[in-house]
Design brief:
The complex is a heterodimer of chains A (about 400) and B (about 425). Chain A is of the alpha/beta class. In chain A, about 30% of the residues lie in helices and about 20% in strands. Chain A has 2 domains: about 240 residues, Peroxisomal Thiolase, Chain A, domain 1 (3-Layer(aba) Sandwich), CATH 3.40.47.10; about 150 residues, Peroxisomal Thiolase, Chain A, domain 1. In chain A, helix 2 packs across helix 5 and helix 6 packs across helix 11. The mean pLDDT of chain A is about 95. Chain B has about 425 residues and is an alpha/beta fold. Chain B has 13 helices and 16 strands. In chain B, strands 1, 2, 5, 6, 7, 9, 10, 11, 12, 15 and 16 form an 11-stranded mixed β-sheet that branches. In chain B, helix 7 packs across helix 13. The relative contact order of chain B is 0.19. Classes of the chains: A alpha/beta (about 400), B alpha/beta (about 425). Strand 6 of chain A pairs antiparallel with strand 6 of chain B, so a sheet runs across the interface. Chain A: InterPro entries: Beta-ketoacyl_synthase (IPR000794), Ketoacyl_synth_C (IPR014031), Ketoacyl_synth_N (IPR014030), PKS_Beta-ketoAc_synthase_dom (IPR020841), Thiolase-like (IPR016039).
């Protein structure tokens, strides 16, 4: 399959809005985890998250604001950044040659909660005319498509925290069959009391109150994960299209990808993580020894962390490749998380520096993985692997390579 | 000798199993009987008190989860959408006879949905908010299954676990085109070699107060509450919106080579597909049908068929004023004069509009039309609309050989999709 080139990046994360703002924060080890301010979390079993506040004023046309969830507003800001970064004028592209694929989790949940409240408290006729699309899974795709006149093959995927990679893989597939440019990734997280309770009921959200010790994957005191808001969108182009217009940025290429699914919990069959990574490397025609850095899924759930560390040691050899999870500074961003990891990996390769996994004071798997903690590690990076796992069994892996 | 690889080198994809949950009955046979008899399954909403709503008509499934083999715990854990998907998948897998030869690593599951677990989220919200009385919903009253309703993962995960699939598993959602896009996504996985067999299809069960209220707000659903059985009138001059529906259609898709090696019965091949977006409006359509026409043209090109080759078109036919004009224009733009000679029908006239699921049900109708040489009719089409002047197969099914069938869809978000199905061996590729 063709290896698309990433020619634009847009980011909005709890620790930085804008690609360079986010990247600088990550290299400083600056976390966006804090007590929730969007609503009062006092009465819930957890209160910390990676909140993202994007003020739409001045960033989006006024008419879009009442019809969109705050998640979609962030996605529209990020899409605009990504396309501006790629310096592409979408109106100039051949008709139907450019599309959008985004990753979703619950859709525009805060918007949905407002309308459910109107329905149940006041009655059906108080429900907004925008509810029919503001809550639904492909809302970000549709709104980005409309705003930027992208009329090629488009869609949305849902695979919990693995979705960001699956969306980019679907975009890659579209580029393989004739599309020239795709906007792909995910910007997710619609914090509100209703979505918060839904996530808390998973039983996997950390209930700690110290923002530095709540989401600590690979740590002896790992206690679950923290949800966050945000993500990244990439502009992907076929190598021919990027060359033809002499694209200014070439962050890297999507070399390979694979997805697998775990057997039912309690099965005596092995889970699908190792096979997923090996299939992605095979798809990329890359040997494990060529991988310079791994961006881990880093679930923050002890059994899942141990399993991931074991698999990385099996595939690459114990401590043979640097591993990092800068998502300890953002929380896990549902449909946006793995897309943000792709963006972070591309920036790491560009600047030859591995961002740190902050807050891991009691590193628990030192015999298995070389986790880059505390401070960035400078070293040349040519090939990166991004691993993403989604409950209840999605595994995805993607291999990236920096331009020659 | 017919090759299992099309001329562009990608592997061809066969439909070898079909499973259905639809208004009018559970199972493929009941579904096909209803459609070919031109009966309608629309009725007054019985699932909740709908008296406050403008549109009180829907096509509900008479679905008994216990009778369909689900345990009490499963029924409590899973939203109705997942229950439909699991039951339909079981029928499809049994129909295909593929289970014994499935290789876990080479088997995938891709499901589609527009609304996911809306019904559970609607009713559970009412509980934690105490009828919408508090923004700060009360966690003390929250179901342990809320996270499984927050994301629709269970509809894919459970099918994977039941069949032992460990290849690519996921959910595709594109509003009301989900039912086509999920099948074409699965077909791409097979064509590119990521899987040999993919269990794929769509499910939606969103007949719930919030959904009814949403469509009331934009007047997309029919308010013909006094005659629910004839409320959905696509292409008819008196049409005034769709009747909300629910259901699921799940397929076993496999490479043609895989099907041939095991001697499987093949209903049809997925010969070509395309998706476009209108970049115009989240809900509205431009009446020229331009992007839908582009999707149809691209799908025919992908399938290497021309307008003259089409024997049957299964229409989107939502029965809104706007859609039926948009769609009619798209057929004329993409097929030219030939459009007037093609039988075009919509099963939404009989089983309502089940949002993301409906297109998978429509793909099933196309596969069964190919299998049985019968074209299902458009029910309730009595009064011709001068602007909808094609052959919409009114009221009565037609016995006719179908070698090439086209199914199209338009969805909120601006999505436009088309898929071409062919009778096995009918078209040189």
């Amino acid at each position: 399959m063709t290896a698309p080139v990433v020619t634009g990046i847009g980011v909005a994360a709890p620790n930085g809005i804008g690609t360079e703002e986010y990247w600088a924060a990550v290299l400083r080890g600056e976390s966006g985890i804090r007590r929730i301010t969007r609503f009062d979390p006092t009465d819930y079993t957890a209160a910390l998250a990676g909140e993202l506040i994007v003020d739409p004023a001045g960033r989006l046309p006024g008419r879009l604001v009442p019809q969109t969830d705050h998640m979609t507003q962030a996605a529209l800001v990020v899409a605009e950044q990504a396309l501006a970064d790629a310096e592409v004028v979408t109106e100039d592209l051949p008709e139907y040659s450019a599309g959008v694929v985004t990753s979703a989790s619950g859709g525009g949940f805060e918007f949905g909660q407002r309308e459910l409240e109107a329905l149940w408290h006041k009655g059906g006729k108080y429900v907004s005319a925008y509810q029919s699309f503001a809550w639904f899974y492909p809302v970000n795709t549709g709104q980005i498509s409309i705003r930027h006149d992208l009329r090629g093959p488009s869609g949305a995927v849902v695979s919990e925290q693995a979705g960001g990679l699956d969306a980019v893989a679907k975009a890659r597939r579209n580029l393989g069959v004739g599309a020239r440019l795709m906007v792909a990734g995910g910007v997710d997280g619609s914090l509100c009391p209703w979505s918060w309770v839904c996530q808390l009921q998973s039983g996997r959200v950390s209930d700690r109150s110290d923002p530095k010790r709540a989401y600590v994957p690979f740590d002896a005191e790992a206690s679950g994960w923290l949800p966050g808001e945000g993500g990244a969108l990439l502009v992907l182009e076929s190598p021919e299209a990027a060359a033809e217009r002499d694209a200014g940025h070439r962050y890297g290429q999507i070399l390979g990808y694979a997805a697998t699914f775990d057997p039912r919990p309690g099965s005596d069959r092995p889970d699908g993580l190792r096979r997923c990574i090996e299939l992605a490397l095979a798809d990329a025609r890359v040997e494990p020894s060529e991988v310079d850095v791994v961006f881990a899924d880093a679930a923050g759930v002890p059994a899942a962390d141990r399993r991931e560390a074991e698999v990385l040691a099996e595939v690459f050899g114990a401590r043979q490749v640097p591993v990092t999870a800068p998502k300890t500074m953002t929380g896990r961003l549902l449909g946006g998380g793995a897309a943000l990891d792709l963006a972070t990996a591309l920036l790491a390769m560009r600047d030859s520096v591995i961002p740190p996994t902050v807050h891991i004071d009691q590193f628990d798997h030192a015999s298995l993985i070389d986790l880059v903690r505390t401070t960035p590690r400078e070293q040349p990076l040519r090939t990166a692997l991004v691993v993403a796992r989604g409950f209840p069994g999605f595994n995805s892996a993607m291999v990236l390579r920096r331009p020659a | 000798m017919v090759s299992g690889t099309s001329t562009d080198g990608s592997r061809r994809v066969a439909i070898s199993g079909i499973g259905i949950v639809a208004p009018g009955g559970v199972g493929t046979k009941q579904f096909w009987d209803l459609l070919t008899n031109g009966r309608t399954a629309t009725r007054s909403i019985s699932m909740f008190d709908a008296s406050q709503f403008r549109s009180r008509v829907a096509a509900e499934c008479d679905f008994d989860p216990v009778a369909n083999g689900l345990s009490r715990r499963e029924i409590r854990m899973w939203d109705r959408t997942t229950q439909f998907a699991v039951v339909a998948a079981a029928e499809a897998v049994a129909d295909s006879g593929v289970l014994d030869v499935l290789v876990p690593e080479r088997t995938g599951v891709i499901t589609g949905t527009a609304c996911g677990m809306t019904q559970s989220l609607d009713s559970e919200y009412a509980i934690v908010s105490d009828e919408g009385s508090a923004w700060q919903v009360d966690q003390a009253h929250a179901s342990p299954y809320l996270y499984d309703y927050f994301l629709p993962s269970s509809m894919a995960a459970e099918i994977a676990w039941r069949t032992g699939a460990e290849g690519p598993v996921g959910i595709v959602s594109t509003g009301c085109t989900s039912g086509i896009d999920v099948i074409t996504h699965a077909a791409e996985l097979i064509a590119e070699g990521s899987a040999d067999v993919v269990i794929a299809g769509a499910s939606d069960a969103a007949i719930s107060p919030i959904t009814v209220a949403c469509f009331d707000a934009i007047k997309a659903t029919t308010p013909r509450n006094d005659t629910p059985e004839s409320a959905a009138r696509p292409f008819d001059r008196t049409r005034n919106g769709f009747a909300l529906g629910e259901g699921a259609a799940i397929f076993v898709l496999e490479s043609v080579d895989h099907a041939r090696r095991r001697g499987a019965h093949v209903y049809a091949e997925i010969a070509g597909h395309a998706a476009r977006a209108n970049a115009y409006s989240m809900t509205g359509l431009r009446l020229d049908g331009r992007e839908l026409a582009a999707a149809i043209t691209a799908a025919m090109r992908d399938a290497r068929v021309g307008p003259a080759d089409l024997d049957y078109i299964n229409a989107h036919g939502s029965g809104t004023k706007q859609n039926d004009l948009h769609e009619t224009a798209a057929y004329k733009a993409s097929l030219g004069h030939v459009a007037y000679q093609k039988p075009i029908s919509t099963i939404k006239s009989m089983i309502g509009h089940s949002l993301g699921a409906i297109c998978s049900l429509e793909v099933a109708a196309c596969a069964l039309a190919i299998e049985h040489s019968v074209i299902p009719p458009t029910a309730n089409l009595h009064e011709r609309d001068p602007q909808c002047d094609l052959d919409y197969v009114p009221l009565v099914a037609r016995e006719q050989q179908v070698r090439v069938a086209l199914n199209v869809a338009s969805g909120f978000g601006g999505f436009q999709s088309a898929v071409v199905l062919t009778k096995p061996g009918a078209v040189a590729r």
